[in-house]
């Protein structure tokens, strides 16, 4: 029969069958399921229905997608799916109205986000593309295919839950599956460039000039908004200048971007110069699982209390050991760890890239019994005076009196005619205890593990997930 068939008619029939197979032409047979079939599921928390799955013929063919992925040795898709199935989606589902079009299931939307970020896709359009073409993502999300706008609205709508209860429950699930605890934590921070433009930075003088020009121009909604931005930026910049001048540094050349005043101009990693940026910080366990995270405009030490509180709220107890680099050798960090009886492993920065012009205070050894300091040249500095504290300053003791005039190391120690003087503050006692603690071989060996625990986390965030620059503006958005 096929030999007698007109070749033109045969080609037309083949095209027709192909059109039917790909779903271009409708088929009246009820046994055939179209490509866009959806399954709705009622919520256990609300009366609303959610799109549980779609593209069912892809998910359940002659060889199911589940079996195919197992045969290919895929693991991450199954892990993400199992972890998501353990979560409580009630806080997400309560945010939707009980009427209207059925929204995508929060579980499926989070599946796209988590799986996509694990694979290094961070932009919304890349996630939209992944949900349509990646078999692992199709399995995790049950085949739902939201566009990039829907994914963005989902993140914005649920950002409080995502950074709060959901982060806690998801982390607990990962800790249980990895069978890891938090008895030993390592902390670190990095510098990530802000979303605002470096080329729109303004000094205090430039802000005043632009504000004067806008004030003289006809008032519009746009100019009023800009004037408000400039006023807020001027106030933030003024406080930064005051803080810088308190440290004896010039603050007149500090700059700020009015569209994102919280971002601070600071040195970037990997020799990329200076730009507006933030400092994210994390605490991770020995399995490199993040148990606490936060972002600060410019400080790594000021957020340690918040990080330890997050970890306590997650697990119910504080770690036994905390491993930090030399940047955390700070009074606030030492006090916070002693407050919760945490063993701190943190060495002082003894390997500076640029050597100091004079000997630092850390090279002077304090003797508590004799109440004196011993300098690097083995001379003794005794107590000379005591300064009482006030509302704005701390009290301290002054040590000096060494024979500095005839000392061979004077040029490396001091230029003062009266010789070198050392100020001892109340918190110096805790610093000395930490220095003695870190001088033991056991403490050095424990601290040597810090790099292999926490630094690969930021390597993965930068190298795999592409976290080189934030995509949203404002501290609350990053």
UniProtKB/TrEMBL annotation:
Listed InterPro entries: Tnp_DDE_dom, Transposase_InsH_N
Name of the protein in question: Transposase
Disordered: region residues: 236-262
Transmembrane segments: none
Basic and acidic residues bias locations: 236-252
Upper taxonomic lineage: Bacteria, Pseudomonadati, Pseudomonadota, Gammaproteobacteria, Enterobacterales
Pfam family of the protein (one): DUF772
Location of the Transposase InsH N-terminal domain: 80-155
Segments forming domain Transposase DDE: 374-477
